Structures are given as structure tokens and as C-alpha cells.
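Researcher: Quick test of sequence recovery. C-alpha cells follow.
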């Protein structure tokens, strides 16, 4: 991966400082994205996925947010050392973002054409006529019907799926090398979700761009992602190719996520849920943050913070307990849910 490495995040820590507490939203995460690769940060709400993505673009408000440690290397340059003026040149042109809710991201008083053209005019030395032609082409590329007419529409005249396509067109306007997609299918029905995912895959292959997908939907991950990073309470607890992680999950949290997918339990039995709740980022437990909810918990888990362990080549998990069980062939077989089952559950 080294020669094609586009983004490398190393030991990133982002804390939010309150009057009496410090919320450790992102607490030392590391991950990589190669050119032309789709990588996903997965985890339940509040685990730090979106904060980590916003940090890439310098969009975390400071105060209360503060980057405590780490580096974000994009093409070998640390974005954390960039000035605001330098970051403005990066946003939209080299790295762009598709936000979760397009209706709140699009300006209701400007046409969709005006909003896409603004990105082009801000970053490239072209006139309005060329910007308009490129905008129409972009709308066509993302599947907006009659783009010559719809370019003059306002956001409220479009469906949810069409607004999300407009957001994708805006993100692609200047041909970025990396697109960050933050829960891009959350507010859409299942049929439209499938269309948007297929669109992402087609555009990624056509343009050879990298995609960082932020999601809690494992069915979405199974559909288009190459490599997955599972987050919990501000840390990464497991990583590997999507097929490896879904076939052989090694961290108890990943096992719980897969077991909780609708369709994973036998007919007539209640749907599995991970006991307990995610800890407050300002009051994390000592040791492993998952230890109060973990079925494999040992005394050491409540004292020592676990390091990443290599289970297989390219497949790591932050759990020495399951590693010992796996080495001794004592890890239960029923933790396997299967890649195809996850994929089908995501489409159900």
C-alpha cells in the first residue's frame, strides 16, 4: 500500500474541553487510505467517527475542541500544520465531504446549480459559462434526470435521494483525490440507498478516487468497502479487509455488532443486543473501554489498556483475551456471521 498511500492518520487525539470535564471524542486512532480504495470507519453513534472526519478538513470548532496529539498526513504533508488559508485550498479541491443530511447542507435560497458552480469558481480559474456546463455534466454523471432543467431547481423541489446526488456532484466538482462520505444513506429508503451505494462504487472506479465512508450500517459496508476500521469509545478496536472482519471477527464488540444485525438470529429468537451502553467520553472506564459490556472480560481488562494484536496478516484487534483463546483454538465458532449474510441483511 505504501507507494499508493494517500492518507495516513497517526495517533490522532481530539478532546472537547468543558468547564469541569474533558470529553475524549477521538482518543488515539490510526488508519490509512490508499489511492482508489474505499475505507470505512464503523461504529455506533458517539464513537468519534464524524469528529475524526471533520478533523481531516479542519472543521472541528476550537474551542471547545482541541487536537491534543497526532498527525494527519495527506500526500505526505501534515494537514494539522496547515493555515486556514491553506486548508481552504484543500477543502473541495483535494479532499471533499458528503454530509449526512443534504437538506441542512444545501442552502435553500440558492439553486443547486449555483451551489455546485460556486465550488468550481472558488477553486478553478474558469468562467461562469464553463462552470455551468461542468455543473450540468456533474448532475448527469450522478444520475439527475434532465440536468439542463434541474440545474435551476431549489433543494426543496428535489427528493431525498436527488438531494444526496447533488451533494455527491458538489463533492466531485473539482475532481478530489479523497471523498469523505458521512452516513450518506441514513435518511434514505432501502431502494435509494442501494442506488447511492452503486453510484459511489461506479464513480470511485471511474475516477480512481479514494473514499472514506463513515457509517454504522454494516450492510452498507459489506456492499462497497475494501477495508474496515471498527471504532468504539474514541478508539479503533479492530481492522482488516471487510471480508476478513465479517468472516472472522476477533474483538468482542465487533462480534456483538454482527450478532445484532437483523437476520443473524434464528427464527423465533429475540434479536441480540449488546448489554449496557456506550460510556460517556468524559468518563471512560479504566483499562479497556468495552470491559463493562464484554462477555470475555478478565481482571486485566479493567486495569490495562489493550494494545492492537495481529491475529492474521493485515487483520488486527485490540483484545489480548480473544487472542489467547484464538491461539488455543478455544474461541467459539458461532461468532461467525458470514460476509454474504451481512450483505443480505443490509439490503433487507
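Model:
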Amino acid at each position: 500500500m505504501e507507494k499508493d498511500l494517500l492518507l495516513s492518520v497517526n495517533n490522532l487525539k481530539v478532546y472537547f474541553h468543558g468547564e469541569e470535564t474533558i470529553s475524549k471524542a477521538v482518543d488515539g486512532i490510526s488508519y490509512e487510505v490508499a489511492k482508489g480504495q474505499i475505507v470505512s470507519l464503523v461504529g455506533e453513534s458517539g464513537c468519534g467517527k464524524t469528529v475524526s472526519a471533520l478533523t481531516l478538513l479542519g472543521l472541528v470548532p476550537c474551542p471547545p475542541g482541541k487536537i491534543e496529539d497526532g498527525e494527519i498526513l495527506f500526500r505526505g504533508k501534515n494537514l494539522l500544520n496547515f493555515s486556514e488559508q491553506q486548508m481552504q485550498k484543500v477543502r473541495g479541491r483535494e479532499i471533499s465531504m458528503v454530509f449526512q443530511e443534504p437538506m441542512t447542507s444545501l442552502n435553500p435560497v440558492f439553486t443547486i446549480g449555483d451551489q455546485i458552480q460556486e465550488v468550481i469558481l472558488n477553486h478553478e480559474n474558469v468562467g461562469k459559462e464553463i462552470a455551468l456546463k461542468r455543473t450540468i455534466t456533474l448532475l448527469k454523471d450522478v444520475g439527475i434526470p434532465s440536468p439542463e432543467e434541474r440545474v435551476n431547481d431549489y433543494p426543496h423541489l428535489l427528493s431525498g435521494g436527488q438531494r444526496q446526488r447533488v451533494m455527491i456532484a458538489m463533492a466531485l466538482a473539482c475532481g478530489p483525490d479523497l471523498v469523505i462520505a458521512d452516513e450518506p444513506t441514513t435518511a434514505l429508503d432501502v431502494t435509494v440507498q442501494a442506488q447511492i451505494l452503486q453510484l459511489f462504487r461506479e464513480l470511485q472506479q471511474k475516477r480512481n478516487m479514494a473514499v472514506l465512508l463513515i457509517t454504522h450500517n454494516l450492510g452498507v459496508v459489506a456492499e462497497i468497502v475494501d477495508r474496515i476500521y471498527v471504532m468504539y469509545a474514541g478508539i479503533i478496536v479492530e481492522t482488516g479487509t471487510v471480508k476478513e472482519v465479517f468472516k472472522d471477527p476477533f474483538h468482542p464488540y465487533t462480534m456483538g455488532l454482527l450478532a445484532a444485525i437483523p437476520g443473524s438470529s434464528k427464527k423465533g429468537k429475540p434479536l441480540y443486543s449488546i448489554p449496557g451502553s456506550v460510556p460517556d467520553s468524559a468518563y471512560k472506564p479504566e483499562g479497556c473501554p468495552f470491559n463493562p459490556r464484554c462477555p470475555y472480560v478478565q481482571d486485566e481488562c479493567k486495569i490495562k489498556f489493550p494494545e492492537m494484536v495481529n491475529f492474521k496478516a493485515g487483520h488486527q484487534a485490540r483484545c489480548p483475551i480473544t487472542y489467547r483463546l484464538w491461539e488455543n483454538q478455544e474461541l467459539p465458532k458461532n461468532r461467525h456471521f458470514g460476509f454474504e449474510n451481512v450483505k443480505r441483511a443490509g439490503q433487507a
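DSSP finds 13 helices and twelve strands in the chain.
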